[in-house]
Specification:
The complex is a heterodimer. By secondary structure, chain A is of the alpha+beta class. Chain A has ten helices and ten strands. The longest helix of chain A has 34 residues. By secondary structure, chain B is of the alpha+beta class. Chains A and B meet through strand 1 and strand 2 of A and helix 2 and helix 3 of B.
Chain lengths: 346, 161
């Protein structure tokens, strides 16, 4: 059965004598379309595909190429349409059920930097944190460090965003949803919470590697927001000072949660009236004590964000502990150091 | 000229002692294509008659033919939605050959047509150009006198990996 759907023309992204790559807007979805060969010059046939917000941002940031959008995301839906047949600002697209012929796909490594037309976007964060690199680094080391550092950064940024009276309600809602969604479900890994927090962070607060000088000594310069960098730095520097004490607290508390079978319990299960032995006061107090030792900022905001669920709060604090432990290790090893030079990008 | 008046190239002295500037000299040029004027001035006022040394045009014939330098408007293709009618009547050039190759070689429609990159030097007096400073795409409106043949410096088949 031929499934057809209408869409409105969004923006031209690539123009060379004619539009070659454009965006479209349909109900609740964004599409990107690239011109394909036509039998006649009068036709303007395009291949279109739906693009998630995350993939769209990744494409505009240059993290994925155009071909990726047409080939990789499993949830995408592909269509054909003819731009020359647009009526009242709308084109009718025909859904493609089989494979798209390779001759209709863009080749690899066509990036958004190859566009001819500019897209209005919120600017990236203008502050730059310079981290100094020394010693020997294996290939995966920097990725490991950057993952943990960015997890800490995005956590602080999200709680700051939630605490800020000037944050629009829609953005606060996104932070709330990130905390209330997956941590309350079974089989959940806290990796997903940090991924979600990175996604909901507005572009002007996002981390972006500005420059890397892979030498010994070298440096990495990262775009971000100064206040969040300062809190992240404080977390790491404080952790290096109190590591032994807080490690004992963490080990005891982890053992308690493990013996009580709380670790495999979801937030929803813990909340359920059917769950006995919640020991809410104890779990909350122990988690709060670790959060205080770690100098986690905006603790009260975190308690609100987890809907005052003591177990989810405890697991969030322990997940932050693990990330701090791993990030701080690079500083303890002497391979990473904070620079006191603060700069703004040009 | 009235008696007692002296004029230079840019002004006229009147009998009452005042000076009136002459209106700017308007040189009427004829464009190769009939340009649309219903959507505003075409070419736009920002477009300039300048020399373009080291520009690139993606063409599809070897040796190049006149149609390789015509806009879709001139080729009789109806205006596409979302496109400025004046830009539709312009010939796309690039000041960045790599960008031109990326577009022509990697996008399905242009790739299928077996594109050729023409390096061209366009002397001033050939037409008006509007340069997008960020993307280095140029909309070029040719004067009737423009002849593409002497402008071509080099042709290169576009194959990209």
């Amino acid at each position: 059965m031929l499934i057809r759907r209408s869409a409105r023309l969004g923006q031209i992204l690539v123009y060379m004598d004619e539009p070659l790559v454009i965006t479209l807007e349909a109900a609740n979805s964004r599409l990107i379309a690239a011109a394909i060969p036509s039998a006649s010059k009068m036709d303007a046939r395009f291949l279109a595909t739906t693009v998630s917000k995350k993939d769209w941002e990744a494409y505009l940031d240059g993290n994925v190429d155009l071909r990726y959008l047409f080939t990789y995301p499993s949830q995408r839906i592909d269509y054909y349409f003819d731009l020359a047949e647009m009526v009242d600002g709308k084109v009718m697209m025909s859904r493609i059920d089989g494979d798209v012929p390779p001759e209709h796909l863009p080749l690899a490594r066509f990036f958004s930097s190859d566009h001819t037309e500019e897209i209005e976007r919120e600017k990236v964060a203008s502050n730059v944190e310079k981290l100094l690199i020394d010693g020997e680094w294996d290939m995966p080391d920097f990725g490991n460090f950057y993952n943990k550092f960015s997890d800490l950064y995005y956590f602080v940024s999200a709680t700051e965003t939630f605490n800020d009276n000037g944050t629009p309600p829609v953005e606060k809602r996104k932070v709330v949803d990130a905390f209330l969604d997956r941590p309350f479900k079974g089989g959940f890994s806290y990796v997903h919470l940090y991924d979600d927090l990175a996604v909901v962070t507005r572009r002007s607060h996002r981390l972006a590697v500005d420059k890397i000088k892979y030498e010994s000594p070298g440096y990495v310069a990262i775009h971000g927001v100064n206040s969040v960098f300062a809190e992240t730095r404080n977390l790491i520097e404080n952790f290096l000072l109190i590591r032994e004490d807080v490690k004992k607290q963490q080990a005891e508390f982890y053992s308690y949660l493990s013996k009580g079978k709380y670790l495999q319990m979801s937030g929803e299960q813990y909340q359920s009236p059917l769950t006995s032995n919640k020991n809410e006061d104890y779990i909350f107090r122990r988690a709060h004590a670790i959060a205080t030792s770690l100098q986690i900022p905006n603790v009260e905001a975190i308690v609100t964000l987890v809907d005052r669920n003591a177990l989810v709060f405890a697991k969030v604090v322990l997940s932050l502990y693990r990330r701090l432990d791993e990030a701080a290790k690079f500083f303890a090893q002497g391979r990473m150091a904070f620079s006191d030079t603060k700069t703004d990008s040009e | 000229m009235p008696m007692g008046n002296q004029s230079d190239a840019s002004s006229v002295h009147l009998d009452n002692g005042e000076t009136n500037p002459l209106p700017p000299l308007k040189v009427s040029v004829e464009y190769l294509e009939k340009l649309p004027q219903d959507g505003g001035v075409c070419p736009p006022e920002k477009a300039e008659d300048i020399e373009l040394e080291g520009a690139y045009r993606v063409i599809y014939n070897k040796p190049p033919i006149c149609d390789d330098f015509k806009s879709f408007h001139a080729l009789g293709v109806s205006l596409r939605p979302g496109v400025d009618p004046c830009v539709w009547a312009a010939c796309s050039l690039f000041l960045d050959g790599i960008k031109a190759k990326q577009i022509a070689g990697k996008l399905a429609k242009t790739r299928d047509a077996k594109p050729i990159l023409a390096l061209i030097n366009i002397p001033s007096g050939s037409g008006k150009s509007l340069i997008n400073e960020r993307s280095l795409h140029v909309s070029f409106w040719m004067y009737k006198s423009f002849d593409f043949k002497p402008c071509i410096v080099e042709l290169e088949d576009i194959h990209v990996d």
